[in-house]
Specification:
By secondary structure, this protein is of the alpha+beta class. It folds into 2 domains: 63 residues; 34 residues, no CATH class. It is built from 1 helix and 6 strands. The strands form 2 sheets. It has a 3-stranded antiparallel β-sheet, with helices on one face. It has a 3-stranded antiparallel β-sheet with strand order 4-5-6, with no helix packed on it. It is elongated, with a radius of gyration of 18 Å. Belongs to the salp15 family. It is found in: Secreted. It comes from Ixodes ricinus. Pfam families: Salp15.
Amino acid sequence: LTLSVVLLATFDYIHANHCTTGLAKYMETKCASFNLKFVGLSDCKFTCQGKNYKGQEQITNFNLANGLPCGRCEECCDGICTPVQISSQDPSTPKSCS
């Protein structure tokens, strides 16, 4: 039993790292497409910063995709971390905003 718990914990840890790496790459690529650099993540939004074509400082915020997990039993919905809607008749199929 102990070995099973350790293996499950390891599997979840690897999965979480893979997700984090993919999300980081997405945010950096999105920022770079506007000639900006990724500077921060907060709940369901991330911020890019740099200089625009006139040399002026530019800060741009983007929402993370709807349906991404953001908290305990919560998901991103239009840039806001929102509780997942769970049907009382079938809790195995939550209602997503995505």
